[in-house]
Amino acid sequence: MRKPLVAGNWKMHGSRNENAALIASIVQGTTGDDRVEIAVCPPFVYIADVVRGVKDSPIAVGAQNVCAEPVGAFTGEVAAAMLRDVGCRYVIVGHSERRHLYREDDALVARKFLAVQQQKMVPILCVGETLEEREQVATETVVARQLDAVLAVAGVNAFSGAVIAYEPVWAIGTGKNATPDQAQTVHAFIRGRLAREDAKIAGAIRILYGGSVKAANAGDLFGMPDVDGGLVGGASLNGEEFVKICGEG
Ligand code: PGA
User: Fold this and answer.
1) Average pLDDT in the 189-205 region?
2) What b/e sequence results for 217-238 when a residue is b if at least 16 CB atoms lie within 10 Å of its CB, and e otherwise?
3) Any atom of ligand 1 within 6 Å of the Cβ of 9
4) Is 95 a catalytic residue?
Protein backbone atom coordinates (compact mmCIF):
# COMPACT_ATOMS: atom_id res chain seq x y z
CA MET A 1 0.00 0.00 0.00
CA ARG A 2 1.32 3.39 -0.96
CA LYS A 3 0.80 6.03 1.72
CA PRO A 4 -0.44 9.21 0.05
CA LEU A 5 1.68 12.35 0.27
CA VAL A 6 0.35 15.88 0.08
CA ALA A 7 3.13 18.45 -0.32
CA GLY A 8 2.64 22.21 -0.29
CA ASN A 9 4.88 24.15 -2.63
CA TRP A 10 4.87 27.67 -1.23
CA LYS A 11 6.93 29.01 -4.16
CA MET A 12 8.18 32.57 -3.48
CA HIS A 13 5.53 33.45 -0.91
CA GLY A 14 5.42 34.05 2.81
CA SER A 15 7.07 35.91 5.68
CA ARG A 16 8.08 34.76 9.15
CA ASN A 17 4.73 35.86 10.55
CA GLU A 18 2.65 34.42 7.74
CA ASN A 19 4.56 31.15 7.84
CA ALA A 20 4.08 30.79 11.60
CA ALA A 21 0.32 31.28 11.24
CA LEU A 22 0.13 28.89 8.30
CA ILE A 23 2.11 26.19 10.10
CA ALA A 24 0.00 26.56 13.23
CA SER A 25 -3.19 26.07 11.27
CA ILE A 26 -1.83 23.06 9.36
CA VAL A 27 -0.48 21.40 12.52
CA GLN A 28 -3.73 21.99 14.36
CA GLY A 29 -5.92 20.90 11.46
CA THR A 30 -4.08 17.67 10.66
CA THR A 31 -3.24 16.37 14.13
CA GLY A 32 -4.20 12.73 14.46
CA ASP A 33 -4.57 12.12 10.73
CA ASP A 34 -1.91 9.55 9.95
CA ARG A 35 -3.45 8.17 6.76
CA VAL A 36 -1.57 10.76 4.77
CA GLU A 37 1.94 12.11 4.87
CA ILE A 38 2.19 15.90 4.75
CA ALA A 39 5.08 18.13 3.72
CA VAL A 40 5.57 21.84 3.23
CA CYS A 41 8.22 23.39 0.99
CA PRO A 42 9.00 26.99 1.95
CA PRO A 43 11.60 29.27 0.33
CA PHE A 44 15.19 28.42 1.38
CA VAL A 45 15.54 31.25 3.91
CA TYR A 46 12.57 30.03 5.94
CA ILE A 47 13.36 26.32 5.98
CA ALA A 48 15.12 26.26 9.36
CA ASP A 49 12.32 28.31 10.94
CA VAL A 50 9.64 26.04 9.52
CA VAL A 51 11.52 22.91 10.64
CA ARG A 52 11.35 24.32 14.18
CA GLY A 53 7.68 25.15 13.71
CA VAL A 54 6.69 21.59 12.80
CA LYS A 55 9.03 19.95 15.31
CA ASP A 56 6.45 18.15 17.42
CA SER A 57 4.26 17.15 14.49
CA PRO A 58 4.65 14.52 11.76
CA ILE A 59 4.77 17.25 9.10
CA ALA A 60 7.93 17.09 6.99
CA VAL A 61 9.76 19.97 5.35
CA GLY A 62 11.10 20.14 1.83
CA ALA A 63 13.01 22.56 -0.38
CA GLN A 64 11.91 23.82 -3.78
CA ASN A 65 15.26 23.54 -5.51
CA VAL A 66 18.89 22.52 -4.95
CA CYS A 67 22.30 22.91 -6.56
CA ALA A 68 23.54 19.88 -8.49
CA GLU A 69 27.08 20.44 -7.18
CA PRO A 70 28.05 19.21 -3.72
CA VAL A 71 30.08 22.21 -2.46
CA GLY A 72 32.24 25.07 -3.72
CA ALA A 73 32.30 28.39 -5.52
CA PHE A 74 28.69 28.58 -6.70
CA THR A 75 27.47 31.98 -5.57
CA GLY A 76 23.81 32.02 -4.63
CA GLU A 77 23.37 28.25 -4.73
CA VAL A 78 22.36 25.85 -1.93
CA ALA A 79 23.80 22.33 -1.66
CA ALA A 80 21.85 19.18 -0.88
CA ALA A 81 23.99 18.54 2.21
CA MET A 82 22.96 21.96 3.56
CA LEU A 83 19.30 21.17 3.07
CA ARG A 84 19.74 17.92 4.91
CA ASP A 85 21.70 19.71 7.63
CA VAL A 86 18.81 22.09 8.37
CA GLY A 87 16.23 19.31 8.47
CA CYS A 88 14.77 18.84 4.98
CA ARG A 89 13.28 15.48 4.11
CA TYR A 90 12.11 16.32 0.57
CA VAL A 91 13.51 18.37 -2.30
CA ILE A 92 11.50 19.31 -5.40
CA VAL A 93 13.56 19.00 -8.58
CA GLY A 94 12.61 19.90 -12.12
CA HIS A 95 9.58 22.04 -11.33
CA SER A 96 8.29 23.47 -14.59
CA GLU A 97 8.96 27.02 -13.36
CA ARG A 98 12.62 26.05 -12.95
CA ARG A 99 12.66 24.31 -16.33
CA HIS A 100 11.01 27.16 -18.19
CA LEU A 101 11.94 30.38 -16.36
CA TYR A 102 15.47 29.30 -15.42
CA ARG A 103 16.16 27.02 -18.36
CA GLU A 104 16.94 23.90 -16.37
CA ASP A 105 17.27 21.05 -18.83
CA ASP A 106 16.69 17.33 -18.35
CA ALA A 107 20.37 16.67 -17.74
CA LEU A 108 20.63 19.27 -14.98
CA VAL A 109 17.42 18.03 -13.35
CA ALA A 110 18.85 14.51 -13.40
CA ARG A 111 22.00 15.67 -11.61
CA LYS A 112 19.92 17.49 -9.00
CA PHE A 113 17.83 14.34 -8.45
CA LEU A 114 20.99 12.37 -7.84
CA ALA A 115 22.43 15.02 -5.50
CA VAL A 116 19.28 14.84 -3.34
CA GLN A 117 19.17 11.07 -3.36
CA GLN A 118 22.84 10.81 -2.41
CA GLN A 119 22.15 12.94 0.66
CA LYS A 120 19.46 10.47 1.72
CA MET A 121 16.63 12.92 1.17
CA VAL A 122 13.63 12.25 -1.03
CA PRO A 123 13.58 13.91 -4.45
CA ILE A 124 10.18 14.97 -5.78
CA LEU A 125 10.81 14.84 -9.52
CA CYS A 126 8.37 17.02 -11.47
CA VAL A 127 7.46 16.09 -15.02
CA GLY A 128 4.76 17.36 -17.33
CA GLU A 129 3.88 18.70 -20.75
CA THR A 130 2.95 22.18 -21.97
CA LEU A 131 -0.43 22.87 -23.57
CA GLU A 132 1.19 22.93 -26.99
CA GLU A 133 2.74 19.52 -26.38
CA ARG A 134 -0.60 18.10 -25.20
CA GLU A 135 -2.32 19.45 -28.29
CA GLN A 136 0.33 17.76 -30.41
CA VAL A 137 -0.43 14.52 -28.55
CA ALA A 138 3.16 14.56 -27.29
CA THR A 139 2.41 14.20 -23.56
CA GLU A 140 3.81 10.69 -23.24
CA THR A 141 6.86 11.50 -25.36
CA VAL A 142 7.70 14.50 -23.18
CA VAL A 143 7.13 12.75 -19.87
CA ALA A 144 9.10 9.71 -21.04
CA ARG A 145 12.01 11.96 -22.09
CA GLN A 146 12.01 13.72 -18.70
CA LEU A 147 11.92 10.40 -16.84
CA ASP A 148 14.46 8.65 -19.03
CA ALA A 149 16.97 11.47 -18.52
CA VAL A 150 16.93 10.80 -14.79
CA LEU A 151 16.95 7.03 -15.23
CA ALA A 152 20.02 7.35 -17.46
CA VAL A 153 21.99 9.34 -14.89
CA ALA A 154 20.72 7.93 -11.61
CA GLY A 155 19.56 4.41 -12.53
CA VAL A 156 16.25 2.86 -11.52
CA ASN A 157 17.42 2.00 -8.00
CA ALA A 158 17.64 5.72 -7.23
CA PHE A 159 13.86 5.81 -7.67
CA SER A 160 13.35 3.50 -4.73
CA GLY A 161 11.59 5.68 -2.16
CA ALA A 162 11.58 8.71 -4.48
CA VAL A 163 8.47 10.67 -5.44
CA ILE A 164 7.34 11.76 -8.90
CA ALA A 165 4.94 14.65 -9.46
CA TYR A 166 3.02 14.79 -12.71
CA GLU A 167 2.31 18.47 -13.25
CA PRO A 168 0.86 19.42 -16.62
CA VAL A 169 2.24 22.92 -17.22
CA TRP A 170 -1.13 24.15 -18.51
CA ALA A 171 -2.73 23.26 -15.17
CA ILE A 172 -0.24 25.07 -12.91
CA GLY A 173 -1.65 28.22 -11.37
CA THR A 174 -4.34 28.40 -14.04
CA GLY A 175 -7.33 27.10 -12.08
CA LYS A 176 -7.71 24.51 -14.84
CA ASN A 177 -6.79 21.12 -13.35
CA ALA A 178 -6.36 17.95 -15.36
CA THR A 179 -9.42 15.75 -15.09
CA PRO A 180 -9.01 12.68 -12.88
CA ASP A 181 -9.01 10.53 -16.05
CA GLN A 182 -6.37 12.66 -17.75
CA ALA A 183 -4.18 12.46 -14.63
CA GLN A 184 -4.72 8.71 -14.24
CA THR A 185 -3.70 8.05 -17.85
CA VAL A 186 -0.37 9.82 -17.45
CA HIS A 187 0.28 8.43 -13.97
CA ALA A 188 -0.28 4.89 -15.25
CA PHE A 189 2.05 5.63 -18.15
CA ILE A 190 4.78 6.84 -15.74
CA ARG A 191 4.40 3.79 -13.51
CA GLY A 192 4.48 1.53 -16.55
CA ARG A 193 7.62 3.18 -17.83
CA LEU A 194 9.38 2.59 -14.52
CA ALA A 195 8.03 -0.96 -14.37
CA ARG A 196 9.94 -1.77 -17.55
CA GLU A 197 13.08 -1.20 -15.44
CA ASP A 198 11.89 -2.53 -12.08
CA ALA A 199 8.33 -3.61 -11.31
CA LYS A 200 8.76 -3.52 -7.54
CA ILE A 201 10.11 0.03 -7.46
CA ALA A 202 7.41 1.13 -9.89
CA GLY A 203 4.70 -0.41 -7.75
CA ALA A 204 5.92 1.30 -4.60
CA ILE A 205 6.71 4.78 -5.92
CA ARG A 206 4.34 7.59 -5.10
CA ILE A 207 3.19 9.62 -8.09
CA LEU A 208 1.61 12.92 -7.08
CA TYR A 209 -0.63 15.05 -9.24
CA GLY A 210 0.01 18.81 -9.32
CA GLY A 211 -1.75 21.66 -11.09
CA SER A 212 -4.64 23.65 -9.60
CA VAL A 213 -5.36 21.13 -6.85
CA LYS A 214 -7.90 22.48 -4.40
CA ALA A 215 -10.22 21.04 -1.77
CA ALA A 216 -13.03 20.81 -4.31
CA ASN A 217 -11.15 18.58 -6.78
CA ALA A 218 -8.61 16.78 -4.54
CA GLY A 219 -10.92 13.90 -3.60
CA ASP A 220 -11.66 12.93 -7.21
CA LEU A 221 -8.03 13.27 -8.28
CA PHE A 222 -6.56 11.40 -5.30
CA GLY A 223 -9.20 8.70 -5.72
CA MET A 224 -7.65 7.50 -8.98
CA PRO A 225 -5.68 4.26 -8.64
CA ASP A 226 -2.29 5.67 -9.67
CA VAL A 227 -2.61 9.10 -8.04
CA ASP A 228 -0.89 8.97 -4.66
CA GLY A 229 -1.53 12.48 -3.41
CA GLY A 230 -0.70 15.94 -4.66
CA LEU A 231 1.83 18.71 -5.04
CA VAL A 232 -0.14 21.82 -4.20
CA GLY A 233 0.87 25.39 -5.04
CA GLY A 234 -1.59 28.25 -4.56
CA ALA A 235 -4.00 26.35 -2.33
CA SER A 236 -1.20 25.37 0.07
CA LEU A 237 -0.91 29.00 1.21
CA ASN A 238 -4.33 28.85 2.83
CA GLY A 239 -4.19 26.72 5.98
CA GLU A 240 -7.84 25.76 6.04
CA GLU A 241 -7.87 24.84 2.35
CA PHE A 242 -4.62 22.87 2.60
CA VAL A 243 -5.91 20.93 5.61
CA LYS A 244 -9.02 20.00 3.63
CA ILE A 245 -6.85 18.80 0.73
CA CYS A 246 -4.78 16.68 3.13
CA GLY A 247 -8.02 15.19 4.38
CA GLU A 248 -8.70 13.89 0.87
CA GLY A 249 -5.36 12.06 0.72
P1 PGA B 1 -0.81 25.28 -8.35
O2 PGA B 1 0.75 24.93 -8.47
O3 PGA B 1 -1.39 24.32 -7.33
O4 PGA B 1 -0.86 26.71 -7.88
O5 PGA B 1 -1.40 25.09 -9.70
C6 PGA B 1 1.21 23.61 -8.41
C7 PGA B 1 2.72 23.58 -8.52
O8 PGA B 1 3.29 24.41 -9.25
O9 PGA B 1 3.39 22.73 -7.88
Assistant:
1) 98
2) bbeebbebebbbbbbbbbbbbb
3) yes
4) yes
